[in-house]
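Technical note accompanying the year-one report. For the benefit of new consortium partners, we illustrate the data format agreed upon in the data management plan: each record pairs a sequence with a structure-token string. No post-processing was applied to the example shown here.
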Amino acid sequence: MDREPEDLQFLGIAGIVGEALKILRSFAKLLGALTLTLILPLCFAILGHHLVSKYLLNEIHWNEMFYQVEAGTPAGKRTMRELTWEWTELFAFLAAYEVFVFAFSLLSAAAVVYTVASIYTGKEISYGRVLSIVPRVWKRLMVTFLWFFSIGFAYYAAFVSVFVLLIITVRLNNLNSALFIFGLILITAVFFCGYVYITMVWHLACVISVLEDKYGLGAMRKSKDLINGNRITALLLDILYLIFAGIIGWFFGYAVLHGHRHGVGSAGRGAYGTVLVGLLCFVHLMGLLTQSVFYFVCKSYHHESIDKSSLSDHLEVYLGDYEPLKSSNIQLEDLHASV
């Protein structure tokens, strides 16, 4: 980069995406290896689980139809046992899927954020080195996620409470349906905006959990402070990610999951599926890279000076027993000199 560290604050969406692409081009081999190891299994699971779920639900559907005809007969009892087993299989599969996605989401985030930080500090970085620190960083990210989940759950519970209160108020005061619909739209909009903000804070908190001595609730608070003044940028980054991921998910459903309804053969569905998994890997990797760059933009915006040595020391301790960095001001220089 040819700009001074204090100029990072002026980077907009295009600048952040440009910096992420520059990192990707300059370290394509390393990031490609990490993608194949951590991001590819994640994206394959995200898209592929729909196929398994669809198969299991079809089996359940046909057995339920058969049971309605054979209820009360020996055949009906066998069908009921099969249904019980199939529902157990479905729930076990979905539980395993959630655990897998959760684990690989955090592992991939830890690997990419650590890699970007090492690039910025000029540290020697390799595939093996990154994988060796991922388990240590992952633990910090897990604590941060649990705080995000707790805050999100409490926020959702508050939404449900307000919704129930709205219903009770409408019934007790015999208010018309128009007022109820207006109130429902209002509280839903407020809930959605609040949840998006909480998610934005969590995404940046994941980067902070890797690059600073804060994690969990401390990282969420620091993230909230850093986002101030850059909320629109954070929102647009999230929206861009969701749009591209949503388009890929929709097209996967159209061409792969229900491809037979649209004249897509088995070979075509396999080809579409392969391409879409690859595209989702690219989108997810770019999402992690842009969040990492966005962290440094926020640091610059709040005039927190950038010191390579402090961050380098912080990254080094991941290779041994973790000891939190004593400095409260983790700082960083621009990447352009490295790439």
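Partners are asked to follow this layout when depositing records. The two ends are 7 Å apart (CA to CA).
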